[in-house]
Amino acid sequence: MRKIFEVIGAIVTVILGLVVAIPVLLAVIGVAVPAILIFVAAIFLIVLLVLMIR
Questions:
Q1: DSSP label of 54
Q2: What tens digit of pLDDT does each residue of 3-19 get?
Q3: Which superkingdom, per the lineage (predicted)?
């Protein structure tokens, strides 16, 4: 009987972990992608400015 409760507890723990982790991961990805794109755009603009000045 105790084994069943341990299995149920493990399953509930995994589900709660996913419920917490998935929004956090999505938020991190949602923040990281625009930040990376802005970073790449900034480098591109700096390179263009350097080439224009030369």
A1: -
A2: 999 999 999 999 999 99
A3: Bacteria
